[in-house]
Design goal:
The complex is a heterodimer of chains A (471) and B (409). Helices cover 31% and strands 26% of the residues of chain A. Chain A is an alpha/beta fold. Chain A folds into three domains: 3-153 and 279-340, FAD/NAD(P)-binding domain (3-Layer(bba) Sandwich), CATH 3.50.50.60; 167-276, FAD/NAD(P)-binding domain (3-Layer(bba) Sandwich); 354-464, Enolase-like, domain 1, CATH 3.30.390. Chain A has a five-stranded mixed β-barrel. A five-stranded parallel beta sheet of chain A has the order 7-14-8-9-10. A five-stranded antiparallel beta sheet of chain A has the order 17-18-21-20-19, sandwiched between helices. In chain A, strand 1 (3-9), helix 1 and strand 2 form a beta-alpha-beta unit. The radius of gyration of chain A is 23 Å and the shape is globular. The mean pLDDT of chain A is 96. Chain B is elongated and about 85 Å long. Chain B is α+β, with helices and mostly antiparallel strands and 409 residues long. Chain B has two domains: 2-152, RNA polymerase II/Efflux pump adaptor protein, barrel-sandwich hybrid domain (OB fold (Dihydrolipoamide Acetyltransferase, E2P), Beta Barrel); 189-407, Chloramphenicol acetyltransferase-like domain (Chloramphenicol Acetyltransferase, 2-Layer Sandwich), CATH 3.30.559. Residues 84-112 and 157-170 of chain B have low confidence and may be disordered. Chain B is built from eleven helices and 18 strands. Chain B has helices at residues 95-100, 108-113, 117-126, 144-152, 187-202, 215-232, 239-252, 296-312, 317-320, 385-400, 403-407; strands spanning 2-6, 17-22, 29-30, 35-40, 45-49, 54-59, 66-67, 72-77, 205-213, 259-261, 264-266, 273-275, 277-279, 282-284, 287-288, 325-329, 348-362, 365-379. Chain B has a six-stranded mixed beta sheet. In chain B, strands 1-8-6-3 form a four-stranded antiparallel beta sheet, with no helix packed on it. In chain B, strands 5-4-2-7 form a four-stranded antiparallel beta sheet, with no helix packed on it. The chains are: A alpha/beta (471), B alpha+beta (409).
């Protein structure tokens, strides 16, 4: 039986990153991943690469360009007549992007001498992993350590069963071959909003049904308000407090029934996307006699260092508690690899950024005002709008603002919230600042290039002290 | 070799001491007996000298921290050379690295380059020693909050940074600037405040007044002061007269020299008289012991010694403990009349004031005499009004006729 120092189950951003790091640290490593691409070949990278982060951003960019043709370019003096959207080309490009990334991960694993198995991995007692290899055969390997990175799957709701055709989840919504005339989306979370944005820009009439009363409950309240206005203006019809009670797919479309404050409603759409959340995926992952402890939400129970209750078994990413974000999974993967190799590894969940790739983008790190109030921490806030930035006017993208929350006594930055173009990139500065426990004054005394959007971070820091220059 | 620098043995009544500013930073050379830090207790400021020469290698407590008797505050490396940033003896393996790094905060530029912008600004603005501040940021870095917290618990640096040269001349910038300035109460001040309030709330304090003609004493002094100084080496002031007069009166009225302790009155058959002295850190009261046994010269010499020690912050706890009676002189600051507060647990205090030429009546005629108002505040719980008045009269009479001190009448 082959024996490894580490066997990683799952090849997504948690698993493959952990495997690469293990390889870098000289550990004999194997990775087992069961994903097969549309061509039936192994497709490493997990949900993120195949049906998540990567393809969605590819489509968001494609659709954003198309949207700009009609909405942004005329102001620049560019007039296009007869522009059309070739969905097949868009999808082919997306598929190519995904394939490139798949191959990239495979290459990285090879470079770091990680044995990659394509198949289903199952943890057995005694730290053995049984691999049901695609294409036949079963192999059992011994592992001194096992890292479970099995990720997550979409939550299914019985009232709207996914059939992969009319009623789809994120995987289906990324693969439409034509622009749906009317698109219904259950769930106004990150995935629902991003997918809704893609098809809305390409011409769909999009209706989003969100059961909660609050929009983007985890985000800064002002961002949530401004974003709701912006997305509605863009054409997304977002209904809050709307709970779907039934969805029936026919050959021609989907009949959706839902209830809101005013009573029962009905809606006809061509396609319906179910995007109500994700749950840890551990189906068929562990033999019963392993005795792996799970929590109430079906996730693998771990401590602060990602150790499970079984000696030598770790778990990271969406399969365990914490934000379901790829970079969080990767961070945990690296920490576990380093801890197995004997270094002290530390995972800082306080400084994990969140990003929503709508337009304008939304990004934040740290606490919101409400969270600080709940913790009874006195804070000062400084905010600066994009429309006061020269760069924003130059590009024509003036919607948005950056807000910094700092401790009232020590001035340490406790939260940064960005709404606007490039938020996903701009947030990195804030994360670095918070890792170093910088004060708003430190950012205020840091030179930011002009003319850039990053100057909004600088001015927001000045604004904490009531001394913004350009406002 | 590493030598410990410890908190000196504290008197039993002093539980702990607060560190004031470090006078030396890690990496700096110290000479033997050089004062490297001062500690503030409830009563005195203690100087801590370096027990041996060497380089201050590590500082274990920050300014503003509280330390216990004999606690180790710092270590001195007797074999190190300064500015090399050497810490412990076994650093032979990385001399190059030490030079490349910027460890010794003695090199101000290299230290400031490792400080974040906000920290640097605060350190420069307030003339702080960054090495004296504990860092709680990533990898022990200093963050703005650390500096702010440090400033909250420490007095501002003795030497403010070079004040910017302002073009406008002499008139102070009182252009309606209503800025506030906050300074933390020093431990000494807080303790004094506590004791004053305690005195006021425990005792039934009343004050009785009288006036004394200082002319006889002044004449006596004029006649003998040079000879006195030549013989005894001490200047003849007025305090010795008052101290001696007080001793005589205290012998005559023992209640004034007593304390209340619980349900008992404690009488003392000796007189330890505290003489209130102003010091840069506040009012302190060193005690003259057994004044009945002291000569005028002894008293004057001791008072001069106390004055010097007070301004140097060198008074010990023992110097200031005990005391059965206190004399306070507000006259040196120009006070004409006042109601001194008791120095607990004592039951009385004599207040001397400014001597002023005043018209008084002698044998039916108005004459000018140098008059001083005397005030005696007393605890009415054990000193009754009659006693207090007579006590003060006794002092007055002894001053106005110093022969009484000689004859004991």
């Amino acid at each position: 039986m082959k024996s490894y120092d580490v066997v990683v189950i799952g090849g997504g951003p948690g698993g493959y990153v952990a495997a690469i790091r293990c390889g870098q640290l000289g550990l004999a490593t194997a990775l087992v991943d069961e994903w097969l691409g549309t061509d039936g070949k192994p497709a490493l990278g997990g949900t993120c690469l195949n049906v998540g982060c990567i393809p969605s951003k590819a489509l968001l960019d494609s659709s954003h360009h198309y949207h700009n043709l009609a909405h942004l370019l005329p102001a620049h003096g560019i007039n296009i007549k007869g522009a059309s959207m070739d969905v097949a080309t868009m999808q082919a490009r997306k598929d190519k992007v995904v394939q490139t990334m798949n191959r990239g991960v495979a290459a990285l694993l090879k470079k770091n001498k990680v044995d990659a198995y394509s198949g289903h991995g199952r943890l057995q007692a005694g730290n053995q992993v049984a691999i049901t290899v695609h294409g036949g055969g079963e192999e059992v390997v011994a592992a001194k350590n096992v890292i479970i990175a099995s990720g997550s799957v979409p939550v299914a709701i019985p009232v709207a069963p996914v059939d992969g055709d009319r009623i789809v989840d994120n995987e289906g919504a990324l693969a439409f071959e034509a622009v749906p005339k009317r698109l219904g989306i259950i769930g106004a979370g990150v995935i629902g909003l991003e997918l809704g944005s893609v098809w809305n820009r390409l011409g769909s009439e999009v209706v989003v049904l969100e059961a909660l009363e609050d929009f983007l409950a985890a985000a800064d309240r002002q961002i949530a308000r401004d974003a709701l206005k912006a997305f509605t203006k863009q054409g997304l019809a977002i209904h809050l407090g709307a709970r779907v009670t039934g969805a029936k797919a026919t050959k021609k479309g989907v009949s959706v029934k839902y209830e809101d404050k005013q009573g029962s409603k009905a809606l006809e759409v061509d396609r319906l996307v179910v995007a109500v959340g994700r749950r840890a995926y551990t189906d068929g992952l562990v033999d019963d006699d392993v005795g792996l402890a799970m929590d109430k939400a079906g996730r693998i129970e771990v401590d602060e260092t990602c150790r499970t209750n079984v000696e030598g078994v770790y778990a990271v990413g969406d399969a365990v508690k914490g934000p379901m974000l790829a970079h969080k999974a990767s961070e945990e993967g690296i920490a576990v690899a380093e801890s197995i190799a004997g270094s002290a590894a530390h995972i800082d969940h306080r400084t994990v950024p969140w990003v929503i790739y709508t337009h304008p983008e939304i990004a934040w790190v740290g606490d919101t005002e409400q969270q600080l109030k709940d913790k009874k921490i006195d804070f000062r806030a400084g905010s600066f709008p994009y429309r006061a930035l020269g760069r924003a006017h130059g590009s024509g993208e003036t919607e948005g603002f950056i807000k910094i929350l700092a401790d009232a006594k020590s001035d340490e930055i406790l939260g940064v919230h960005i709404y606007g173009a490039q938020a996903s990139e701009l947030i990195a500065e804030a994360v670095t600042a918070m890792v170093f426990r910088a004060s708003s004054e430190d950012l205020a005394r840091t030179v930011h290039a002009h003319p850039t959007l990053s100057e909004a971070m600088h001015e927001a820091a000045l604004a904490v002290d009531g001394r913004a220059i350009h406002m | 070799m590493l030598v410990d620098v410890k908190v000196p043995v504290l008197a039993e009544s002093v539980p702990d001491a607060t560190l004031l500013d470090w006078k030396k930073s890690p990496g700096e050379a110290v000479a033997r007996d050089e004062i490297i830090i001062e500690l503030e207790t409830d009563k005195v400021v203690l100087e801590v000298p370096a027990p041996q020469a060497g380089v201050l290698s590590e500082v274990l407590k920050n300014s503003g921290d509280v330390a216990l008797s004999q606690e180790v505050l710092a270590r001195i490396d007797t074999e190190a050379t300064p500015a090399a940033g050497a810490e412990t003896g076994d650093k032979q393996s990385q001399p190059a690295k030490t030079a490349a790094q910027a460890p010794a905060p003695a090199a101000a530029e290299s230290a400031s380059s490792a400080l974040s912008p906000a920290v640097q600004r605060l350190v420069e603005e307030h003339g702080l020693d960054a090495s004296a501040i504990k860092g709680t940021g990533k990898d022990g870095r200093l963050i703005k909050g650390d500096v702010l917290a440090y400033m909250d618990t420490n007095k501002p640096a003795a030497k403010p940074p070079a004040a910017p040269v302002k073009a406008p001349p002499s008139p102070p910038p009182a252009k309606g600037e209503r800025a506030e300035r906050r300074e933390p109460l020093s431990r000494l001040r807080m303790r004094i405040a506590e004791r004053l309030v305690q005195a006021q709330q425990t005792a039934a304090i009343l004050t009785t007044f009288n006036e004394v003609n200082m002319q006889p004493v002044m004449e006596l002094r004029k006649r003998y002061k040079d000879q006195f100084e030549k013989t005894h080496g001490a200047r003849l002031g007025f305090m010795s007269f008052f101290a001696k007069a007080a001793v005589q009166a205290l012998e005559r009225f023992p209640a004034v020299n007593a304390y209340i302790e619980g349900n008992e009155i404690v009488f003392h058959d000796y007189q330890d008289i505290g003489v209130a002295v102003g010091s840069p850190r506040g009012l302190v009261v060193p005690i003259l012991r057994d004044v009945a046994q002291m000569s005028f010269a002894d008293i004057e010499a001791k008072i001069a010694e106390f004055g010097a020690k007070a301004s140097d912050g060198a008074l010990t706890v023992d110097d200031m403990s005990g005391g059965t009676f206190t004399i306070s002189n507000g006259g040196v600051f120009g006070s004409m009349l006042s109601t001194p507060i008791l120095n607990p647990p004592q039951s009385a205090i004599l207040g001397m004031h400014k001597t002023e030429q005043r018209p008084v009546v002698v044998d039916g005629e108005i004459v000018i005499r140098p008059m001083m108002y005397l005030a005696l505040s007393y605890d009415h719980r054990i000193v009754d009004g009659r006693e207090a008045v007579l006590f003060l009269v006794a002092i007055k009479e002894a001053i106005e006729d110093p022969a009484r001190l000689l004859l004991g009448v």
